[in-house]
Amino acid sequence: MTHGTRYTGATSIELAEGWSLERLTPPSRLFGANGLRTGPDGRIYVAQVAGSQISAFDVGTGELETVSAQGSDIVAPDDVAFDERGDLYATEYYDGRVSVRGAGGRTRVLRDDVPGANGITFHRGRLFVDECRIGGRLLEMDLEGGAPRVLLENLPMPNAMEFGPDGKLYYPLLGTNDIWRIDPDGGEPERVAGDLGVPDAVKFDAEGRIISTQVATGEVLRIDPRSGERTVLATIAPGLDNLTFVGNRLFVSGFTGHITEILGEGRTRAVLPGGLTWPLDLTAGGDGTVYVADGTYFYALPPGGEPRTLGMLFSPGWPGYIRGVTAAGDGEFVVTTSLGQISRWRPAAGEHVVLAGESVPFDQLYGVATAPDGAVVAAELGTGRVVSVRGGEVTTLAAGLDRPMGVAFDSDGTCLVSESGAGRVVAVTGSGVDTVVDGLEAPQGILAADGTLTIVDAGAKTLVEVDLNALADGLGGKARTTIARDLPVGAPLGEPPKPLKGLMPFTGPQGLFAGIAAGPDGALLVSADAEGSVLALRRTR
């Protein structure tokens, strides 16, 4: 099968002499896998919220085609459906929109006032959509773009839905852990099944039985709506999202981008492997384990091993979508989240403590580091600040910066910050900020160690090394070396992706962040967020 990857660079990665590169994880095929729908052409259409992308997957050949790419008019698609003409309708979760993409590729917005737009389905020429949020609505959409008809409201997080053979609309509720149905032409809703594994999608097999993915338990359930009989068809992993049939073959999706065929009797077949979705920041332990913040997942990557999930969206004590991370002891991490909080998190104990941002969240936190005196320092992109947290008190170390992202401390304890909007790295001093390195495009992750500053310039797609001692001696021209070019980091080539607004209280605005960390063997570890891998760059001499 020819799966391909989600990112195609202009050229292969170019390394400076004396350096080698290893991919610790393979590039990802998709930006996660959310809504699934079999199209009129028999291919599976895969909505990818994180990547603002829709792909079509041919289960016969294994070929993937990007139907709606990052940077196009559809933003953060969560689910898709087709009308009788073959036009594709997509719910845009973060933007609260329902869009229509015609066969010719032209896209128009049907409605832009559907917050948390998620589940979507057609039935006899009628379009139905729900909102996956607390207080969500179940709507029948006007195909001409007029005001929708409200079937139900104040629902606790409805999700992917489908009509049953009885002509009723079946919808799962994540907030109450059950499945309901309603006649779209009138009548009271009825509870069909409860006490499940947090159902997030409902479809029907050829015998009229409900097939439902369970996001918390990772089960694929078959439920007879007449008798209530339940059967576990397979247990895969927490994070299942949706399902579809191609003929009589059943396929399910997962947050990590995997698509799995359910074969019966508990057997499964991976038809498309999962991978990293973002990834964002990373940190390393003394034993060589690399820890990767991947938005809704957090992984431990042991030397020579496979990624192991330490926590995810439905884990006990989960602190929220993790963006920045630094190790803070054995099994303990300080993290920044898209919820606007700085927390100390212990995955094994299933607990976290909010250090700052609980009552008044920060505005788009990114990199985080621990100062020599033990204070936690983080970059707040939205306000242009660098903040320090100690004993619950928040102090502003610097303000008025242009999109600060990365934070690091050099050997003498000076706080260094990357200003992605200004194309420079600055040192935060008692009197303000001083430029350390400028002339960059969009610096993000930074690392300071042994008199050397290493910068991931996501705009230029380069990894830059700066000799701080040479810089201090006035040898600016000799201080800077480009270690790697054409790195798979930052925005894809071509049209830049549109911002992901987020939907509180689940997540704030989301954005790209290519982090960097030092491995105990001296490797430079880089999160290649564009292709979804972790890179290790090492000196060969």
Any overview of this molecule?
Residues 31-248 form the SMP-30/Gluconolactonase/LRE-like region domain. InterPro entries: 6-blade_b-propeller_TolB-like, SGL, Vgb. It comes from Actinomadura chokoriensis. Pfam families: SGL. There is one protein chain. This protein folds into two domains: 29-272, TolB, C-terminal domain (Neuraminidase, 6 Propeller), CATH 2.120.10.30; 282-491 and 512-539, Neuraminidase. It is 2% helix and 49% strand. It is built from two helices and 49 strands. Strands 1-46-45-44-43 form a five-stranded antiparallel beta sheet. Strand 39 (404-409) and strand 40 (415-419) form a beta hairpin. The longest helix has 5 residues, at 468-472.
